[in-house]
Amino acid sequence: MENLSTRGHLLTEQVNVNSANLDRLTTLEIVDLFNKEDINTLNAIAGARVELASAIDTIADSLRQGGRLFYIGAGTSGRLGVLDAAECPPTFCTPPELVQGILAGGAGALIKSSEGLEDIASDGAAAMVERNVGEHDVVVGITAGGTTPYVHGAIETAKQRGAKTVFIACVPANQVASIADIDIRLPVGA
């Protein structure tokens, strides 16, 4: 694995020159800028459409076989996974254990930052063991820069336990840190 302390080259760590003067824009100019920048998200998703379809098919097949879906992440990335998992029971009438969100730092990290806990790969691995992740399950690791040790530890352990794995990052493929034998990589960075 690459040295995770050297993140300066990552797209997620770069200054967006289009918003360098954000503090001097009017509110309407800020809204217009956000709207203009949204096209980058759509283009990145379009660029990963094959991988995205593959991930959806893998997850659907796993759920049909009695498996579960786990999202695992830290910080905002992890919170978004927890949010999606929390919406499944009321939206799709699924049992709460079918889709689960796992966040570095646990439930407390939903409302208060848990800096440092994202850097403990063994905690991510332990989360997979605690939930008895196995061959019918799918684990989706979500990490903005692709370097979060907590997510790496979870994905590696899930794979060792026979689960299918999906890795989502918000950087181009050439910036995603290496993890051995991931089933589906979804680098959606532009």
Q: Report the span from N to C terminus.
A: 23 Å
What's the helix count? Answer: 5
Relevant CATH superfamily:
Glucose-6-phosphate isomerase like protein, domain 1
The CATH topology name reads Rossmann fold
Q: On the 0-100 scale, what is the average pLDDT?
A: 85
What is the beta-strand fraction? 5-15%
Q: The biggest beta sheet, please?
A: 5 strands, parallel
- Which percent bin holds the helix content? 40-55%
Class by alpha and beta content: alpha/beta
Give the CA-based shape. globular
Label the CATH architecture. Answer: 3-Layer(aba) Sandwich
Q: Within the largest sheet, what's the order of strands? A: 2-1-3-4-5
Q: What's the total count of β strands?
A: 5
| CATH class category name | Alpha Beta
Q: How many distinct folded domains?
A: 1
The radius of gyration over CA amounts to 17 Å
Detailed description of the structure:
By secondary structure, this protein is α/β, with parallel strands linked by helices. The protein has a single domain (51-187), classed as Glucose-6-phosphate isomerase like protein, domain 1 (Rossmann fold), CATH 3.40.50.10490. It is built from 5 helices and 5 strands. A 5-stranded parallel sheet has the order 2-1-3-4-5, sandwiched between helices. The longest helix is centred in the N-terminal third of the chain and has 21 residues, at 27-47. The model has no long low-confidence stretch (mean pLDDT 85).
Descriptive terms for the model:
about 190 residues; alpha/beta; Rossmann fold; five-stranded parallel β-sheet; 5 strands; about 15% strand
